[in-house]
Specification:
alpha+beta; six-stranded antiparallel β-sheet; 27 strands; globular
């Protein structure tokens, strides 16, 4: 983040790189990664009966474990709710446990409990119980933040107890109407009530940043959820200037979004809006035409909002989750946590204890050495850039101090022999082994940070971003460990650049799925034209997305 905060970088056309690019495939050994590191899979957006989920807290923990996740977070809505994680109404407890304003004033007294209280006094106890049940797994205390002025957001705080996440929810969740704790002295300062506007959302990111820097919390993250669902900022969604503001306020904690939303088993692959498409295949809705290969518009469109963020050199990373509420076989539109979408994060054992702690996992997320995948299209990805002896992986920054004569891009990946569709999806008529058809290497210029007073601060476009190479089975070879390996060379790199990957099981020109270049088409085209079951379509149409590598020469 130091580079982004302190330097402004020049930009130039990417075209000069394209003519000098050379591609070759070779078999090779694993790249030099930290020997203490390990890839761990996770999901940090899921719901139980505590809020609007349909199953118990323990059931969701069990499913997260069943689908082989290494870590996950209970992250569900702020505000106030009327039941515990088993579905028992709070007013059946004796004595009635409800505190604050909800004990005496709102609705029927003693029926609804503020989430700050349930997080602190009940959810934490359930988390600790499940940590004992699954000692090899790591379970986070989180919150789906109802962001003031905006949509939702997945958050988590790592601390000795739930006091900090409780204080965060009380102060900044727009659905929390309780005012009973305002002015309360805590280790995090005197509590305020700031939950109405975008400026309050910025203050929430700033608050968590301050706690992290002060050491009153061990770690934390703020990752925005289903970011296109509400449309633009004027209708309660997010515009790029909002993300820039939030990242500026909390660069160490507020560093990304869920590019692929949950709810992947519904007809809109993650959103709940009515999408209309014309005869030319152009689709529209308040969420920019729905998802594209299950991925939102801000991520799926090359040169769009995410690329504009990366074009500033921002360490702004991309994730995906289940957003599990109710399974599609039980009348819902969700897969179980880990059943379909996974985040893979490279986690380093910094404590040298042979374990990977909550704190180390959060550090792994912040590093950007992470990718997300659908349907286990891949279960391993190494992506790195090398200049002479300098080598960096996803999320890393290369500082070459001058033109790079030969920048080597190396990709090493693997797909499992089966996925969860093949193993236990009894309601799916067709399941095939996950096989990557092609991988796109996407690159764009880094022009440097944009001043908030500039008109460009509200522009969500990076016109320099292009797919600079596409690889298929003809371009990779299998190494002795069974991994597919690609090496790609860029000659005379004289501009600050970033590089990222996406891959799919679909060939270019797949009807209603991909265009002639292999770009994803709106998912609504399939459901409208072929009337495919939503869960079946999700298994048919698989993608993975890497996080970026940053390369600086100036």
């Amino acid at each position: 983040m130091k580079r982004f905060a302190t330097k402004v970088f020049s930009g130039a056309a990417i075209g000069t790189l394209l003519s000098s690019a050379v591609c070759l495939a070779v078999a090779g050994a694993a790249p030099g990664t930290d020997p203490k590191g390990k890839w761990l899979s996770g999901d940090f957006h899921q719901h139980t009966l505590y809020t609007d989920g349909s199953t118990t807290f323990d059931f969701v923990m069990e499913k997260s474990n069943q689908y082989a996740l290494d870590w996950w977070a209970n992250s569900e809505h702020g505000g106030a709710r009327n039941r515990d994680g088993n579905g028992n109404s709070w007013n059946t407890y004796s004595p009635n446990p409800i505190k604050g304003d909800y004990a005496v004033t709102y609705g029927t007294p003693g029926v609804v409990m503020a989430r700050w209280q349930s997080l602190k006094e009940y959810v934490w106890e359930d988390i600790e119980k499940n940590r004992e049940l699954y000692p090899e797994k790591r379970i986070f205390s989180g919150l789906e933040w109802n962001v003031p002025g905006h949509e939702h957001c997945s958050t988590a705080i790592i601390a000795k107890d739930a006091s900090a996440i409780s204080a965060f929810e009380y102060q900044f969740d727009k659905s929390d109407a309780d005012k009973s704790r305002t002015g309360e002295a805590t280790p995090f300062g005197s509590l305020i009530k700031a939950n109405k506007t975008h400026a309050d959302a910025v203050r929430g990111c700033q608050w968590m940043q301050e706690q992290y820097k002060a050491g009153t919390i061990d770690n934390g993250w703020i990752v925005f959820a289903h970011i296109e669902r509400a449309g633009t900022g004027s209708s309660g969604g997010y515009d790029i200037n909002h993300f820039r503001d939030l990242n500026n306020a909390g660069p160490d904690v507020c560093y990304g979004f869920e590019g692929a939303p949950g709810h992947q088993a519904n007809n809109d692959r993650g959103f709940g809006n009515s999408v209309t498409c014309d005869a030319n295949g152009s689709c529209s809705s308040k969420d920019f035409g729905g998802s594209y290969g299950g991925v939102g518009y801000y991520t799926a469109i090359v040169g769009g909002l995410w690329d504009a963020m990366l074009g500033e050199g921002r360490r702004w990373f991309n994730f995906a989750n289940s957003d599990y509420h109710t399974h599609y076989t039980k009348g819902g539109d969700d897969f179980y946590p880990g059943e379909y979408q996974k985040n893979w994060v490279y986690v380093i054992d910094k404590n040298n204890d042979g374990q990977h702690s909550l704190d180390e996992i959060a550090d792994g997320m912040r590093s950007g050495n992470a990718y997300f995948t659908q349907g286990d299209l891949i279960n391993h990805l190494e992506f790195e850039a090398q200049n002479n002896d300098q080598k960096v992986s996803m999320g890393g920054e290369m500082d070459a101090q001058g033109t790079i004569k030969n920048l080597k891009i190396k990709i090493r990946f693997k797909s499992p022999q089966t996925n969860n569709c093949m193993v236990d999806s009894l309601h799916i008529t067709s399941c095939t082994a996950p096989v990557v058809d092609h991988i796109d290497l996407i690159a764009g210029e880094i022009a440097g940070p944009i001043n908030p007073s500039s008109p460009d601060y509200a522009k969500a476009v990076n016109s320099t971003t292009k797919v600079i190479a596409t690889f298929n089975a003809k371009n990779w070879e299998r190494d002795e460990d069974g991994y597919n390996v690609i090496v790609y060379h860029l000659k005379d790199v004289a501009k600050n650049m970033y590089f990222r990957l996406r891959g799919t099981n679909l060939a270019a020109n797949t009807p209603y799925e991909t265009d002639e270049s292999g770009n994803p088409l709106p998912d609504a085209l399939v459901t409208i034209n072929e009337n495919i079951d939503a869960a079946q379509e999700a298994w048919n149409d698989l993608w993975f997305y890497s996080n970026p590598i940053f390369v600086y020469v100036n």
